[in-house]
Design a protein that fits this description.
homodimer; 8-stranded mixed sheet; two-stranded parallel sheet; 13 helices; 10 strands
């Protein structure tokens, strides 16, 4: 069990998730001496849980390659194996992201039609009740046009299946909306996506950083370097504004008086904007379901991550992803054949 | 004159800036028939202003190369020429960014020791009263390690000279703080910056997206693709939180009552966080001073952009930049010579 406040927040998170997912069972991987007394605090959870003891763990400093080779009995690896073996339907971890991706990719293997798996997550937008999907959030530092077009398909399926959007609008993250802008990868990906008539959504072209949270699109596609930085920039900015607000509201006696009246409304807002609600990045494009929780998540955040995993496990998510990827690649093959025949004329 | 609300916001902005910069004079380039009646509204401004008439203008759809070749009598080009000819000390424009950069680079030429100019701007942080510099905000889609190390020097001089930070802390934007993370460019740039003992600031290593606004560093260095997206993600997120807040505060009668007490504090916050205060990206690394205002800026925003230009024009900014770049490249040359002698041994 990884994460800054593990194992307590993991157990408490499971106890929160238990109430929403009545048929859930839990396998906890880690140090039994630590987990058992915690589990005792939640008798209802205990009855649907099992502890799998291991002393070994992946640490944050482990390189993915080292973790993969040397941590074969770590809690992370054993949890992934349990999904592979059919003992569990999904694995949720707040540990080392690189190691988790390396292990999940190695054990689960990628879905047919996927060059590289990606991490997808969702964020609130200006459009009330309409969340937006962002990917890749950090699995692939460099991506080509082909990777990006696959991510568009992955993100659209996520938006449809998990967030319930009927026909997701898909945007490619760029430095401007004009066709001439951006690097070669995004320009080529835009061409690929425009040509694919069978997308599980509607490709709307380029979008900019501010469009992620404006609700302009349901899916924002980018490489893992830019996506990770955009996500964390959004988190940092939200923290800046809310901290400044807190300071302002405590700055004078008059403001403090107003705070009393405003308390319920502000608490509602806090709940709506709570980063915990948006915890749980899914590793998309793998044959098994693996959810990455934020390392700094609290129990509510970890419960959200469990919820994301459970929602996906309860749908036939990966079958749909595989089907849509097949369509994408068939269209691309057709395109190539047509190009060839033109050349042959 | 470009910008969504030009020419009115330009004239009004100049009138605001006039009060702070008592020795300023203004040259306005554009359609005299439009500018003259506006200027008449501000008699004090009129006495220190001159209109240079031209019918030609750069439009937002112009590619930089086309603007450079075909818009030789545009207001943008004539304004840049005026700085080159010593008639003005800086040019401020809210027009097409790509065209402005192409023209400014062509007319001013780059400073010795610079491979590519960059756009730098500043943002508020969690540390009260401590703003942070971000560059490149969009001039260079792709950057190598050398470009990034030059940007670090540019940003540090900006932080020292314009924001008054004594020894700026410089960070390289990445997807994690660990040395092994990121693309080749940032890893190599980190090595270059760690080896340079004579930086006009302190290189602290990698920082993440949330560190831009946390105040962890005074200068955040990145390529123009990532920088532009990070900047706009921050803007979008700030808008999301403030819009949600507005909705929450109007959601109930009780909240509205509280609003009355809180009004002064909230207005103070609004002023502090006003994007207008942070308007004005400087094109760094050129032999002339060119400031890009946000296209959607209002008069206060445009006045801020004028202020940035005036502050820089009043300092010996470019001389300092040139001196620091010389030190950087000398250190790199020395490094190469040492490497060679090691090989020769």
């Amino acid at each position: 069990m990884g994460g800054d406040e593990a194992p307590r927040m993991v157990i408490e998170g499971a106890n929160i998730a238990r109430r929403q997912y009545r048929q859930a069972h839990f396998l906890f991987f880690g140090d039994k001496a630590q987990i058992e007394p915690l589990l005792k605090e939640f008798p209802k959870l205990e009855t649907i849980s099992e502890i799998r003891h291991t002393d070994e763990m992946v640490v944050n400093e482990d390189k993915p390659s080292i973790a993969l080779r040397q941590r074969r009995n770590s809690s992370m690896r054993l949890a992934i194996n349990a999904v592979k073996d059919g003992e569990a339907q999904c694995v949720i971890s707040a540990g080392n992201t690189g190691a988790l991706m390396a292990m999940a990719k190695f054990v689960f293997k990628v879905l047919p039609g996927i060059s590289r798996p990606a991490i997808a997550g969702y964020l609130p937008t200006l459009k009330e009740g309409r969340d937006t999907v962002l990917l890749d959030m950090g699995a692939n530092i460099q991506c080509d046009a082909n990777n990006l077009s696959e991510f568009a398909v992955l993100g659209a399926v996520y938006s449809k299946e998990v967030l319930g959007v009927n026909e997701p609008a898909i945007g490619l993250l760029n430095v401007g909306e004009e066709e001439m802008k951006g690097n070669e990868q995004v320009k080529e990906a835009a061409t690929l996506l425009s040509e694919h008539k069978n997308l599980p959504g509607k490709f709307v072209g380029f979008v900019e950083g501010n469009d992620i949270t404006s609700g302009a699109v349901d899916v924002t596609v980018t490489d893992g370097f830019t996506g990770n930085i955009a996500l964390k920039s959004i988190e940092g900015s939200a923290k800046l504004v809310s901290t400044m607000l807190k300071r302002a509201l405590k700055s004078s006696l008059l403001a403090k008086l107003g705070l009393i009246f405003m308390w319920p409304a502000l608490m509602g807002l806090k709940k709506r904007m709570d980063p915990s609600r948006y915890n749980g990045g899914i590793f998309m494009g793998l044959r098994g379901i693996c959810i990455k929780s934020h390392g700094g998540a609290n129990n509510i955040g970890f419960a959200s991550a469990i919820g994301v995993g459970a929602d996906i496990a309860l749908s036939d998510f990966n079958e749909k992803v595989a089907r849509e990827l097949e369509k994408l690649h068939e269209a691309q093959e057709l395109e190539k054949i047509e190009d060839l025949s033109v050349e042959a004329v």
